[in-house]
C-alpha cells in the first residue's frame, strides 16, 4: 500500500475542503502533479501481433519501447470480443453483462453507469479523446452530453500512407495531431486523461497493402484454425500494416510528451478492444478473440522489463486509473486495481488470487432472424478455457441465409474479407471443409480446452469422460460468478439484452439505413430503400455463387 500513501500525500490530492482553505483554485491546478493518463486502444488486434511479442512480420517500435520500459502482461483479457461492450467495460470497470443495454454492439451505455472519465473530470482532470472512443452506438440517447471516453478531438485530418490516396480505406483522423491540439488546450498544471482510439486494424483493408509496403508473405504465422493458404497469409499481412499505423501515431504522442517534459509523469496503457477480425477470433471467446496486448508504462513506479503472468481483465483499468489519481474505487466496480501489482517491482506471478478472468458476448451485429442473439459466457483459468453456449441450436457466427444479416452476406458476425470468402468456398471441399465447420458450424453447449496444450482451441474436451469432473467444476465456478455479479441471463431477464436499441443497419428491416435515418423516410421512400437492398442481396448471391457456396 506504499503507493497509495504516496499518492495521497501529493499536492492536489488533499480533500477538497482542505484545499479550498489552504490555496486558491489557480494554485491548486499548478500544484496538481497527479499522473497524466494516456490510454491507447487499437481496434481488433490480438495479443501476439507486435514485434515485442515475437511477430516477425511486423515492426512496432513504439509498443516495444513501452513494453521494455514498463510492464507487459502475458494474460490480459477483454470483457467482450465486441467493440461497444468491450469499451463500456473498460470505461466503467464492470463486466459488460452488468451494463444492461451496454452489453450489446451499436447500443448505449445507460447513464446510470459512471465512467472513470467522469470521476477523473470531477476531480480536476482535463479529459479528451480522438479517433474511436466508446462506440459504435448512440451516447446521446443514453442522456450523456459527450462521448463517454471524453470530449472529442477529430478536426485534424491526415491521409494515411498518402501514396495510396483514396483507395486506402483507413481512417484519415490524424490521431497524433489531435492529441497535440488537446495538449495545447490543456490548462497549465492540470493533469490530463486522454483516450487514443485508433480505428485500425479494423476492416476494411486495402488489398495487398502488406506486400506493397514490402512485407513478405513467408514471414506470416497462420493460426491453426485458418487454412495456411496465400489468400489468408496476404490478408494477415494487410492487417499488420494497420497495426503499424496505430504504433506510428503512438510514437508521435510519446515524442510530444517527452518534448513537453510530461513523459515521466504519464501513465501510458496500450491494449485493444478485441481480437483480430478473422473467423473464430473477433466476436468469439477463444484466445484470438479475447486475449489482448496489454502494457502499462509509468516511469515513476514501474522499472523496465517486467513481464506479469497474473490473469488481468480490462475491467481492472478503471479502478487502476482511479487509484493512481488518488481517488477511491467505487464498490460496484467488478475490476480490481492493478496498483499493488505495479508497486511490487517483480515479474512473473505476483498475486496468486488473480488466477481467472471472465468473458462474455451478447448481440454483436444484426445477423439472426428478428435480431435474435447468440450469447456466450466463458472463464479462463489456467490451463483451461470453459465456454458456455446457452443457445447451441443457433449459428454462432450469424445465420447462413444472407437476408437475415445486416450486410446481406452469410455469417455476418465475421467481417467480410478475402479470408472469409476463401472459407466460404470450402463448403463442399472434402479435404478442407474442416476449416469451414470450425468457422461456421454449430457448437455444443459446453466447450473445454487445455489452452497450454491446444493454443488454437481445436480439441473440445468437454464431452470426454476423463474431463467430466474438471468441466463440471469450471461450469459451476463460472455460473456462480455470473450469479454473484448479476448477469441478467442468470435471473431470467435476458430480454433486456434482446430489446437493447440497435442504431445501425438492420438490412431489410431498415432499408439498410441507420435507424434514425429510416424513421425520417415516408412510405414511398422506405419502399425504394428496400428495393435497393434487394438489389444488393442479389449481387451478393451472385458473388457467393461464384465462390461455389450454396445455402443449404
State the gist of this model.
Helices cover 31% and strands 12% of the residues. With 552 residues, it is α/β, with parallel strands linked by helices. The strands form two sheets. Strands 1, 2, 3, 4, 5, 6, 7 and 8 form an eight-stranded mixed β-sheet that branches. The protein has a four-stranded antiparallel β-sheet with strand order 9-10-11-12, covered by helices on one side.
Please provide a written account of the structure:
This protein is α/β, with parallel strands linked by helices and 552 residues long. Helix 7 (175-185) packs parallel to helix 9. The chain is built from 18 helices and twelve strands. It has helices at 2-8, 16-22, 25-31, 61-68, 83-92, 116-122, 175-185, 209-212, 230-259, 287-290, 317-324, 339-342, 418-424, 433-440, 468-484, 495-498, 515-519, 523-546, and strands at 36-42, 71-77, 126-131, 192-197, 266-272, 291-292, 295-297, 306-313, 357-361, 376-381, 384-388, 446-450.
Give me the secondary-structure topology.
Layout: H1 2-8, H2 16-22, H3 25-31, E1 36-42, H4 61-68, E2 71-77, H5 83-92, H6 116-122, E3 126-131, H7 175-185, E4 192-197, H8 209-212, H9 230-259, E5 266-272, H10 287-290, E6 291-292, E7 295-297, E8 306-313, H11 317-324, H12 339-342, E9 357-361, E10 376-381, E11 384-388, H13 418-424, H14 433-440, E12 446-450, H15 468-484, H16 495-498, H17 515-519, H18 523-546
Parallel strand pairs: 1-4, 1-5, 2-8, 3-4
Antiparallel strand pairs: 2-6, 2-7, 5-7, 9-10, 10-11, 11-12
Amino acid at each position: 500500500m506504499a503507493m497509495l500513501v504516496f499518492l495521497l500525500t501529493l499536492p492536489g490530492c488533499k480533500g477538497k475542503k482542505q484545499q479550498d482553505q489552504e490555496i486558491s483554485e489557480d494554485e491548486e491546478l499548478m500544484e496538481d502533479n497527479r499522473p497524466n493518463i494516456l490510454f491507447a486502444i487499437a481496434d481488433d488486434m490480438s495479443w501476439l501481433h507486435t514485434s515485442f511479442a515475437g511477430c516477425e512480420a511486423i515492426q512496432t517500435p513504439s509498443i516495444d519501447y513501452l513494453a521494455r520500459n514498463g510492464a507487459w502482461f502475458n494474460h490480459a483479457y477483454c470483457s467482450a470480443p465486441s467493440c461497444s461492450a468491450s469499451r463500456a467495460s473498460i470505461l466503467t470497470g464492470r463486466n459488460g453483462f452488468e451494463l444492461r443495454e451496454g452489453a450489446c454492439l451499436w447500443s448505449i451505455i445507460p447513464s446510470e453507469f459512471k465512467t472513470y472519465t467522469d470521476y477523473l473530470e470531477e476531480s480536476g482532470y482535463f479529459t479528451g479523446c480522438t479517433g474511436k472512443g466508446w462506440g459504435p452506438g448512440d451516447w446521446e440517447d443514453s442522456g450523456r452530453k459527450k462521448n463517454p471516453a471524453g470530449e472529442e478531438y477529430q478536426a485534424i485530418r491526415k491521409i494515411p500512407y498518402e501514396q495510396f490516396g483514396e483507395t486506402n480505406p483507413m481512417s484519415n483522423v490524424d490521431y497524433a495531431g489531435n492529441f497535440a491540439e488537446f495538449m495545447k488546450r490543456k490548462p497549465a498544471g492540470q493533469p490530463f486523461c486522454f483516450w487514443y482510439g485508433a480505428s485500425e486494424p479494423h476492416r476494411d483493408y486495402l488489398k495487398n497493402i502488406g506486400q506493397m509496403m514490402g512485407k513478405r508473405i513467408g514471414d506470416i504465422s497462420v493460426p491453426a484454425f485458418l487454412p495456411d493458404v496465400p489468400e489468408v497469409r496476404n490478408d494477415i499481412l494487410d492487417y499488420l500494416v494497420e497495426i503499424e499505423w496505430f504504433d506510428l501515431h503512438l510514437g508521435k504522442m510519446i515524442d510530444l510528451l517527452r518534448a513537453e517534459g510530461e513523459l515521466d509523469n504519464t501513465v501510458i496503457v496500450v491494449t485493444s478492444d478485441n481480437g483480430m477480425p478473422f473467423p473464430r477470433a473477433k466476436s468469439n471467446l477463444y484466445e484470438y478473440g479475447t486475449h489482448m496486448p496489454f502494457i502499462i508504462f509509468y516511469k515513476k513506479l514501474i522499472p523496465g522489463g517486467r513481464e506479469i503472468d497474473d490473469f488481468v481483465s480490462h475491467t481492472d483499468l478503471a479502478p487502476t486509473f482511479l487509484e493512481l489519481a488518488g481517488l477511491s474505487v467505487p464498490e460496484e466496480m467488478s475490476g480490481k486495481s492493478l496498483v499493488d501489482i505495479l508497486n511490487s517491482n517483480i515479474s512473473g506471478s505476483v498475486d496468486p488470487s488473480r488466477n481467472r478472468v471472465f468473458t462474455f458476448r451478447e448481440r454483436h451485429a444484426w445477423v439472426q432472424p428478428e435480431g435474435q442473439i447468440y450469447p456466450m459466457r466463458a472463464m479462463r483459468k489456467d490451463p483451461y478455457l470453459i465456454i458456455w453456449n446457452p443457445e447451441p441450436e443457433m449459428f454462432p457466427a450469424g445465420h447462413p441465409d444472407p437476408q437475415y444479416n445486416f450486410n446481406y452476406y452469410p455469417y455476418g458476425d465475421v467481417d467480410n474479407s478475402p479470408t472469409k470468402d476463401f472459407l466460404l468456398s470450402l463448403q463442399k471441399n472434402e479435404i478442407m471443409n474442416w476449416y469451414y465447420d470450425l468457422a461456421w458450424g454449430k457448437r455444443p453447449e459446453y466447450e473445454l480446452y487445455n489452452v497450454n496444450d491446444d493454443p488454437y482451441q481445436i480439441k473440445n474436451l468437454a464431452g470426454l469422460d476423463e474431463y467430466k469432473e474438471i468441466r463440471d467444476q469450471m461450469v459451476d465456478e463460472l455460473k456462480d460468478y455470473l450469479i454473484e455479479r448479476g448477469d441478467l441471463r442468470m435471473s431470467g431477464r435476458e430480454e433486456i439484452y434482446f430489446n437493447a436499441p440497435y442504431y445501425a443497419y438492420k438490412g431489410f428491416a431498415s432499408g439498410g439505413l441507420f435507424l434514425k435515418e429510416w424513421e425520417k423516410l415516408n412510405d414511398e421512400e422506405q419502399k425504394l430503400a428496400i428495393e435497393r437492398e434487394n438489389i444488393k442481396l442479389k449481387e451478393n448471391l451472385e458473388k457467393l455463387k461464384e465462390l461455389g457456396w450454396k445455402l443449404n
